[in-house]
Design a protein that fits this description.
Length: 196
C-alpha cells in the first residue's frame, strides 16, 4: 500500500488537502485527532502525561485541558519535548496499526495528515510526502480567524514547528497561498501515483 503524508505547518492548509482526499474516497489518518484520542483514551499515555505535567492536564470530565496544556507546552521548549516524547511514539504505533488494517482491506493508497512528520518519526513509515506551504502572514491570518488565537500565539506555534516547514528535496510541494489553485496541484500529484 502507498502511504502518503500530507504535512505542513499550522495554517498551511494540510487539512484542506486531507478533506479533498476524503471527498475523493481515500482514507486519511489524522494525527492530531488520533493523538487527542490517545491522550484521553490510552491509559498508559494518560499516566505518563499526569506524571509529567500534573493532574491539571485533564478536566474533571476526563478530557484534555487543552488551554492549560498549550500554555505549558508552547511556552517551554523542554516541556514541548517531554510532551512529544510521550505522544509521538503512541501515535506512530497507532498509525502503523491503522495502515496495516488499510493494507489488509486491500487499499492501494491511504494518507496520513501530520504537522510533525519528522519530529514524530513518521517520515520513516510513509512512501511519499505532500508538503503544503503558505506564506507566514497568510498562515497567521488563517489561524487567528479559525482559532481566535493572537498573532503571537500563532507565531509561537509556527516557531515550534520551524524544522517541519522545510520542504525536503524528495517531497512534493503544494502551494496554498490564496493565489494558486490548490485542486489542480493535488490532481497532478494523484496522476503520478501508479496505483491511482
Amino acid at each position: 500500500m502507498e502511504l502518503i503524508a500530507i504535512t505542513g505547518g499550522i495554517g498551511s492548509g494540510k487539512s484542506v488537502v486531507s478533506h479533498m482526499m476524503k471527498v475523493m474516497g481515500y482514507d486519511v489518518y489524522d494525527c492530531d485527532s488520533r493523538a487527542r484520542g490517545l491522550m484521553t483514551g490510552d491509559q498508559d499515555v494518560r499516566r505518563q502525561l499526569i506524571s509529567t505535567f500534573g493532574k491539571d492536564i485533564y478536566l474533571a470530565d476526563g478530557n484534555i485541558n487543552r488551554e492549560h496544556l498549550s500554555s505549558v507546552a508552547f511556552a517551554d521548549k523542554s516541556a514541548l519535548n517531554r510532551l512529544n516524547a510521550i505522544v509521538h511514539p503512541a501515535t506512530a504505533r497507532d498509525l502503523l496499526r491503522w495502515s496495516s488494517d488499510q493494507a489488509a482491506q486491500g487499499k492501494a493508497v491511504a494518507f496520513v495528515e501530520t504537522a510533525l512528520l519528522r519530529t514524530g518519526g513518521l517520515d520513516q513509515v510513509v512512501n511519499q510526502v505532500w508538503h503544503v506551504t503558505a506564506p507566514a502572514d497568510v498562515r497567521i491570518k488563517r489561524v487567528m480567524a479559525r482559532n481566535g488565537f493572537t498573532a503571537a500565539q500563532v507565531q509561537a506555534r509556527i516557531d515550534a514547528q520551524a524544522l517541519e516547514d522545510i520542504v525536503g528535496a524528495d517531497e512534493h510541494e503544494l502551494v496554498n497561498d490564496n493565489a494558486r489553485a490548490l485542486l489542480p496541484q493535488v490532481m497532478a500529484l494523484l496522476q503520478q501515483i501508479k496505483k491511482y
